[in-house]
Write a structure and sequence with these properties.
This protein is an alpha+beta fold. It is 43% helix and 16% strand. It is globular, with a radius of gyration of 21 Å.
Length: 347
Amino acid sequence: MNAVQLPVLHPPLKGFLRWAYTLSITSIHEETIPWYYSNFIQLHCNKKFLENGRQYYIDFFRGKPNELNFNNPFLLTCSVNYTILESLAWDAWPKFFADQIANGYYCVVFLDEAMLSTAASYQKEPFPHHLFLYGFDWDKSVFYASMFDHTGVYRNLQIPFREFLDAVQSMKHLLKEKLTADHHTYFYKYEPHSPYPFDKTAAIDQLRDYLNGETHLNRINYNPDNEEAFGIKVYDYLRMYYDAIESNDTRLGDRSDVRHLHVLWEHKKMMSERIGYLVDEGIIPYDEELADGYKDITQRALKLRDQYIRHEIREDKEVFERLRLRFNQFRNEEPVLLQKLITLLEG
């Protein structure tokens, strides 16, 4: 076959590409929807971002390892490192990945995105990153890929084989010079799962963990290290982060200011959509306070994100006071709504 495009859907979560890539594969399949709404409840963030210039992050939490590492029950996963791929002849790389796609495998390739003309990092400092390939056209010498483009929009586009090889070659150099670590290349094939109805037990466990600001996932294999905050406690560190931004704290490392607010909005949107799903499926009865409460939080979270985007274009010092106000409101309002949701699920 000279051209193949595996099916993908615009992903419901895009804050981090581990979600965007895997969910763009699974969300197109109706049987995965109950699993989706049984998960993506917990949040986590790092606590020690004012030490040693570390970057602050906030993200959904589904245990360890992360979603790229065998964590999605609908994806058959293989992973390889550059040591294994090194045996490939240089001109064989495009055909190797095209063959995997032709066999039904989506490819998430670790390479230097600064060599891709569609990327925001193009011709800047090296940017080791994972690129999602879902198709190819051999006659046009291109891969079909999904990524955030140079405007910051997540979309599907074409990557010429030549640029792909340049990005791989640059990554080989970075690894050889020990300028970065190998985060592996992944191959995913969609595999229908046994019936996966909405899991009340899993949902209630995650809701309780969120309310208690803790996690008990993966305790068999991972000991808590006190490096991360969970659930409702995330607001304390969000506030600490933006207070540091406002005061120009020199201890802050790399900044990704808007992404944190985008992920926060995605979490509220996901919670609101979950409530609608549970009502539509007859799993819980409609509760006006619960449904309207989360819709309102979602709208305020979106507005907060957009206000911060405008602040980055044209400075607005008052945005920091609005951030503190909203974080306090959400921290006070969410426990009431989530306890109501737990009660409805248990009933």
